[in-house]
Specification:
With about 300 residues, the chain is an alpha/beta fold. The chain contains 12 helices and 10 strands.
């Protein structure tokens, strides 16, 4: 409530404020309150996910009473957003379709994932030894679920070495560490790990929205192997930057194939970076925002 009052005071005391941009749909209670109190102020929401769908996915893993309540709470607040906001940006067509189940006649604007450009790495293919795989992701339910599955069902059957980095992931060290799996947890800089990796792997099976780490791998120009969920929302030809895999058999066969055909990886890396610059950079997103907000 304190934050809501602060926002209202800013709008009341500054006549130059003509729009409020809310960066997460979890704060959807703001939509009705602000639109009722300031009907001339444009209310803009950015959906990182269809949060009620995300909550359903989380409930599959952590079946707590709180998780159950979140499903209905977020469905309620997202319905308020759809009816009381002026512009709504969603990451993907999938999320747009999910939100249309709540309000079929409301139009949303697709604004794909974009991240700050940290620069392309000098990608080099390993010429000897095992293939170097990299998993990047913090300790949250979808990452943990996918990583456990990958460590158990894929890593024992490939000539590869997996490095795991991500905030909080060190708690899995005792559980999944193996001769070919190294769990580091939080690191100061990710760039050096992308630099030393041949392939980024993303065995993610749960979630909503778009995966930030997919854009990050493309930004650095690193080939990627991931599930349908990992690539969800990315309107690209996946086979030009890596491979989509959804079963242990597919992951194993793909990793072993790439191990024996490493020259292919350089082409994946170069095209990945090109796609990032064209579609998933901040500059690309700014053009979509300008077109939607100033030419609608």
């Amino acid at each position: 409530k304190e934050h809501i009052f602060q926002i209202e005071n800013i709008i009341q005391n500054d006549p130059t404020v003509d729009a409020v941009f809310v960066m997460m749909s979890r704060w959807g209670l703001l939509a009705k309150r602000l639109k009722k109190k300031f009907p001339k102020t444009k209310i803009i929401f950015f959906f990182h996910n269809a949060e009620y769908v995300y909550s359903k996915e989380e409930y599959k893993v952590a079946k707590t009473f709180n998780n159950f309540l979140y499903i209905y709470y977020f469905k309620h607040v997202e319905k308020l957003i759809l009816h009381y906001s002026d512009f709504r940006f969603v990451l993907s067509k999938r999320d747009d379709n999910e939100l249309k189940k709540i309000a079929p006649k409301i139009n949303n604007i697709i604004l794909p994932m974009s991240i700050e450009d940290m620069g392309k790495i000098n990608y080099k293919i390993s010429t000897d030894g095992v293939l170097k795989l990299l998993f990047v992701g913090s300790y949250f339910f979808a990452n943990v679920d996918g990583l456990r599955w990958f460590a158990k069902n894929v890593m024992p059957h490939v000539n590869a070495e997996l490095t795991v980095v991500g905030n909080g992931m060190e708690v899995l060290k005792d559980e999944i560490e193996a001769p070919n799996i190294h769990v580091l947890g939080r690191v100061d800089s990710l760039k050096s790990y992308y630099q030393s990796a041949d392939i980024v792997v993303s065995p993610i099976f749960l979630g909503s929205g778009m995966k930030t780490k997919t854009a990050e791998a493309m930004m650095y120009g690193t080939p990627m192997i991931g599930t349908t969920e990992a690539f969800s929302g990315y309107d690209i030809q996946i086979e030009l930057i890596g491979k989509e895999c959804n079963t242990s058999k597919e992951f194993i066969e793909t990793i072993n194939f790439m191990d024996n055909n490493r020259d292919l990886l350089l082409g994946f890396a170069n095209y990945s970076r090109t796609l990032f610059e064209k579609y998933y950079s901040i500059e690309a997103s700014l053009q979509t925002l300008k077109k939607a907000l100033f030419h609608s």
